[in-house]
Design a protein that fits this description.
The chain has 2 domains: 47 residues, Pemi-like Protein 1, Chain: D, CATH 2.10.260; 35 residues, no CATH class. 30% of the residues lie in helices and 15% in strands. The protein is elongated and about 50 Å long. InterPro entries: SpoVT-AbrB_dom, SpoVT-AbrB_sf. This is AbrB family looped-hinge helix DNA binding protein. Keywords: DNA-binding.
């Protein structure tokens, strides 16, 4: 695997799946004993996460626009009423 001139690498799909990483996932890098480690950032560590953020994360990457939910159901999810 090679790093681009912009410092980008592609995380192999099987590793993304194992780590639960999806497009838009927040990640953390650390450096210990000469190794760079990538890990998923926990939701608790991200200050200011709103109900809307959590609702959007619940439907991101589901392969359908709204999983068959009605507009009213989506609005309830966004408001945190569900």
């Amino acid at each position: 695997m090679r790093m681009t001139s912009k410092g980008q690498v592609t995380v192999p799909k099987h590793l993304r799946d194992l780590a639960g990483l999806r497009p838009g996932s927040e990640v953390r890098f650390s450096f210990e004993e000469g190794r760079v480690t990538l890990s998923r950032a926990d939701a608790e560590e991200r200050p200011g996460k709103t109900r809307g953020d959590r609702a959007v994360e619940a439907i991101v990457g589901t392969r359908t626009v709204n999983r068959g939910l009605s507009t009213d159901e989506i609005m309830r999810l966004m408001r945190g009423d569900a």
